[in-house]
C-alpha cells in the first residue's frame, strides 16, 4: 500500500513538472526585432517660411500687387456703400417731410434697389476676380519655390529640405540646419532666369 501511495505521488510530481515545462515552452517572445539604422550620412536642412515671404523679392512684388488691388477694391466698395447709404437717407428725409409724390417715391425706391443690386454685383464679381488672382499668384509662387527647392537641394547635396513655419509640424529644428538666408538668396538670384511656363 505504501508503495502505491509513493508511486501515485511520484506520478503526480512528474506530471506537474511536465506541465510547467510545457507552459514555459509556450511563452512567445514579443520583443520587436528592429534593425537599427545609421542616419549620420543624411543631410537635412530647413528654411523659415515666414522669413522667405519677407525676403524673397518675387513674393514681395506679387504680394504688393495683390495688396494694392485689394485696397482699391475695398475703397471702391466703401465709396459705393456710402453712396447708397446717403441716397437712402435722402429718400427717407424727403418721404418723412412729405416732399415726394407717389410717383417720385416709387422712382426713388427703384433707384435705391438698383444701387443695392449694383453694389452686391460689384462685390461678388470684382471680389471674386481678386480672390482668383490671389490664388493664381500664390500658386505660381509656390511652384517657383518648389522648383528651386529641388534644384537647390540637388546642387548642395541636401537629402531633405524642410519648411519650418509657425504652427507647423516641426516645433524645433537645430539652428545649424537653417539655410533660409542662403536659399532665399538662391531664389532671388535665379528666379528671373526661370520661364514662368515651367512652374505654372
Task: Provide an overview of this structure.
- This protein is mostly helical.
- The radius of gyration is 38 Å and the shape is rod-shaped.
- It contains 6 helices and 2 strands.
- It has helices spanning 2-26, 49-55, 57-96, 102-155, 180-190, 196-199, and strands at residues 44-48, 160-164.
- Mean pLDDT is 81; it is low at 1-22 and 33-38.
- Helix 2 (49-55) runs parallel beside helix 5 and helix 3 runs antiparallel to helix 4.
Q: How do the helices and strands line up, and which of them pair or pack?
A:
Blueprint: H1 2-26, E1 44-48, H2 49-55, H3 57-96, H4 102-155, E2 160-164, H5 180-190, H6 196-199
Parallel strand pairs: 1-2
Helix pairs in contact: 2-5, 3-4, 4-5
Order of helices and strands: HEHHHEHH
- State the shape: rod-shaped
What percent strand? 5-15%
The residue fraction in helices comes out at: over 70%
* Total number of domains: 1
What is the number of E strands?
A: 2
Query: How confident overall, as mean pLDDT?
Result: 81
What are the low-pLDDT stretches, counting only 5+ consecutive residues below 50?
1-22, 33-38
Strand order of the largest sheet: 1-2
Largest sheet entry: 2 strands, parallel
- If you compute it from the alpha carbons, what radius of gyration comes out, rounded to the nearest whole angstrom? 38 Å
Total helix count? 6
Question: How far apart are the termini?
Answer: 100 Å
Coarse structural class: mainly alpha
